[in-house]
Amino acid sequence: MIAFLAMGGYAAFVWPAYGISLACLATMVAVTVRDYRRAKAQLTYATKQK
Amino acid sequence: MMSFMALVSRDVRLAVRAGGGAALAVAFFAAAATLVPLGVGADLWLLAQIAGGVLWVAAVLAALLSLDRLFQADFDDGSLDIIALSPLSLETISVAKILSHWLTTGVPLTLVSPLLGVLFGLPAKAIAVLSLSLLMGTPAISAIGAIGAGLTLAIRRGGLILPLVVLPLLAPAVIFGAGSVLATLNTMPGGALALLAAYSLAAVLLAPFAVAAAVRLNLGG
Amino acid sequence: MQTLANPTRFMAASQSILPWLAGAAAISLGAGLVLGFAAPPDYQQGDTVKIMFVHVPAVWTAMMAYGLLALASLIGLVNRHPLADLAARTAAPLGAAFTALGLITGSLWGRPMWGAWWVWDGRLTTFLLLLFIYVGYIALWNAIEDETRAARICAVLALVGAVNLPVIEFSVDWWTTLHQGESIFRAGGPLIAPVFLWPLFLMALGYTLLFFVLWIIRIRTEILVRQSRRTAMGISA
To answer: What are phi and psi of C187, to 5 degrees?
Structure first.
């Protein structure tokens, strides 16, 4: 386990790379889904107004 | 209804009158180039090494200064619509614009470059190559710059978008142009000038189509 | 009414395909990660080779996104298809994000590999300029008020950029090979062993599928926004 986390001494590079990738992809997913839900709610609201 | 040469001479006259045209570009070129030794130190060997790059970048920035006026002034007061009505195609009009821009920026910058080359400690052969590279490369700057100008002509305060869009596209010109100077200085294999010439030729031949397309889109609505 | 039929068809088609794409993306990424972490250290690069599994997919996706953006731009200019305009516009922020990710992961890979956080070789420099081109594209779109005009003008920019990018890479490559004798690391090395190839492929596939999922959702979002506007203005959808 320790050896896995140490990544042969390169832990300072490998884990941040994966961490930033995960954070970036997760943010992209979250923002995309949020914008979609918002647009959908907006349309429902606008349709109800009619 | 303007002829090609009439359009070119009109634009040159307007550029000179409006913002000092050539004088402004040259002054900026010299001022920017002069700042570098102040920032980097007076070691003439070092300055000679970076001269190609510094002077090329300064030339690009100086040429960029007057680009936003290329179409915008005419667009704002409606004269662009009238020019577009002329029997000349928009592509030809674009060539005229590129030519007039080059005459008021590229040519003066090239003429001043030997002086700046001396300031940077370049030997005679390198200065010759520097000036030649600017002569051959500045048409590309005007051509590709015109694309940016055409795309942004209707944007109110599009001041920074134009350089942002144009500068990445000018990377090859800077690379080949500055590269030719450095290659001459350090006796490396040549070829940069030939590549620059090819690049510039391609840019000048192809850009008018993109410029015309952009202007057409902005006028058409 | 023909222009309205297409968005409706797109909404229906995308609704049925999205779950499959998302599922496939998740499986691909999951499998890629498992295989990636199970892979042994490379005899040259050690465990930093594992960064390749997040770096190369990001770079590939960023470049593919630009290709799709340019293609959509061309279709929008030639066919005036409104869906093409939406496709181009929505691809840009995604592509820019993948480009930034590629640059950061590349830097983290490069530091232990070459000893430098950055080198000015052909690929990296072109990739950096790609980021600027994305940013310029987005800025230009936001600066033009009329939607259709913005789409057309940015389409011209996208195509000009597409033509220039190979030229840029060539010019930087040409200069660096002339300029220095030091070896420039080529991603992956001369041959990639299968134990590395599989995780790499699966991660790249996962990233690609994820891009398509996000892209499709964003296009759906844009269609909904336009429908909202039309409803609010009293035009029956």
So the answer is: -55, 120
Give domain status of residue A28, yes or no: yes
Domain count for chain A, please give it.
Answer: 1
User: What interface predicted TM-score (ipTM) does this complex get?
Assistant: 0.90
Instruction: Flag whether A6 is in a domain.
Output: no
Contacts of C235 in chain A (CB under 8 A): none
Of C129, C143, C144, the CB nearest to B168: C129
What token pair was written down for B167? Answer: 């500068």
Whole-model pTM: value is 0.90
Q: Which residues in chain B are contacts of C170 at CB distance < 8 A?
A: 172
In this complex, the residue of C58, C214, C225 whose CB is nearest that of residue A32 is: C214
A 10 A CB-CB count for C46 gives: 16
Q: Which residue has the higher pLDDT, B41 or C6?
A: B41
Give the distance from residue A19's alpha carbon to the nearest chain C alpha carbon, in angstroms. Answer: 10
- Chain C residues whose CB is inside 8 A of the A32 CB are 214, 217-218, 221
Instruction: Report if residue C32 sits inside a domain.
Output: yes
Q: What Å distances lie between residue B205 and B200, B210, C149, CA to CA?
A: 8, 10, 25
Residue C4, pLDDT score: 42
Asked if residue C64 belongs to a domain, the reply is yes
Chain-chain contact of B221 with C146 (C-beta, under 8 angstroms):
yes
User: Which of B65, B39, B73 lies closest to B54 in space, CA to CA?
Assistant: B39
A15 touching chain C per CB within 8 A:
no
Residue C76 belongs to some domain of the structure? yes
Which amino acid type is present at position B108?
Answer: P
First-to-final CA distance of chain B: 22
At C188 the pLDDT is 45
Q: Identify the burial level of C230 via C-beta atoms within 10 angstroms of its C-beta, where 0-12 means exposed, 13-18 middle and 19 or more buried.
A: middle
Domain that holds residue C207: 18-39+46-181+191-232
Inter-chain CB proximity A46 and C105 less than 8 Å? no
